[in-house]
Amino acid sequence: MSLRPRLLALTMAAAWLAACSSIPTTRQLAADAAAAMGGIDELRAVETLTMRDGTGTRTRLGQTVHVGDEEDVAQLTQVVEIVDLAGGRASMHYMLTSGGFMQNRHEILTKRGDALVGVEIIPPRPTIATSPSGLFSWGTQNHPGLLLRRNVVSIVLAAVEMGSEELAEDREMNGRTYKYGTTRTGWGEEVGLYFNPDTKMLAAYETTDTESMLGDQPAVYLLNDYRSAGGLTLPHALTIRKGGRDYSSVQFPTIAVNDPAAEAEFEIRDEVSAQADEAIAAGEYSPVVLTDVARGVYFAQAYSHNSLVVEFPSFLAVVEAAYTEAQSTTLARVLGERFPDKPIRYAAVTHHHYDHTGGVRGLAAIGASIVVSDAHSPEMQMVLDAPHTNPPDNLARARTAGASVGSLEVYDQIHTIEEGNQKLELYAVSGSPHVDPIVLAFVPGPGVLFQSDLFFPGTGAGGPTAVHLLEAVRELGLNVRINAGGHGGVGPFAELETAVAGN
Fold first, then answer.
1. Does domain 22-266 have CATH number 3.20.20?
2. How far is 344 from 368, CA to CA, in rounded Å?
3. pTM to 2 decimal places
4. 286-501 — its CATH code?
5. pLDDT of 117-152, one tens digit each?
């Protein structure tokens, strides 16, 4: 090579090296972000973050009238989120409003010693203690544990300590160009980071969230409204997208750093102290009490969402795999103690709403067939098929271990489970204003009806759904004597007739 081409090559190489030296690594970008937020040491000194008086929205509630309907946007108000970084605890308290439905919900992930405990408070229901898998949230997240893993302080510090040394790249998001790099968190997750080149702040991050019903979801967190808070500069607005769709948003007027009052949030109340010990000892636990309704028929009364259990000569059938994995695991344990030689062969679904199907995967994990009407089957098939890796649930672990697990068993409008002298009839009826269709479960021998969300036995309160229930029972010609509810308790069928007459 002659001298001139050689000099040109050396010049180009020097220019390339100079250009590379001006491109920051992810770790450098994270260090700049930490400095802009107030300093690395100051971020490391954060023990608690208390965010109060938030307002926002939540979707993906799993509460549509028909499978496949577009979901309504629920409103979140009075939002209080507390993240205890030092203690590994988190709390979500908020008011949820969706259409005519309103609920004051409070989910707390706390500890007794080193053991994690869940506490759920939804007045006027009794407060309960549960295992962490027994918490179910309609707040900005599906579970308070995600607040710990997804708060901006933890993410930035993880990027400072474990961020990639590879050169950052330019990447667009929402029409803007950011500096992009990746990091691994201390808990083993891969996170993509978008830094604002002008402000140096972390503008967004992306990772995989595992939702209890939706499974693994590519998630994007958008951070906005950086303002002063306790000597730091923190984002006061957050928008979350999961699976490419809007999930939640929240705006907080204030954030308190290391507020001493935060500690009181995580104290386990005296009335659930014994229950907390039971949850820790059991590993997976949610309160379930089994009572006799009639010969071979039992009512599994839980915290808020109940099930019916029907005994057959060689197996059991459960109607409603409700609420959470902890509840389905507890129900299986209670039934195993009462009926040691009878497996749960079937779990029937009354409707596709997530709070009434949160235990479906748990019962499928122990081999129960999930019995659904064809109208509900697309949603329930999605729930059963969804991968759960971060972390895996009982069904994911059972599949990994090669265990035999339950699958979907689909019927049209009427289905009967029968063995010996015992029979369970399932009727998918249309026209309910709450959910369409909804399945009524009937045990004809003792005349026991089980229904969810239409009428709450023991309350005496009627309404449009109660009217529809009574009309459906009469149209089907069912000789109902006992009415058991997915909510409420067990009562005589005459209670429904009286409630409708007085409506």
1. no
2. 6
3. 0.93
4. 3.60.15.10
5. 999 999 999 999 999 999 999 999 999 999 999 999
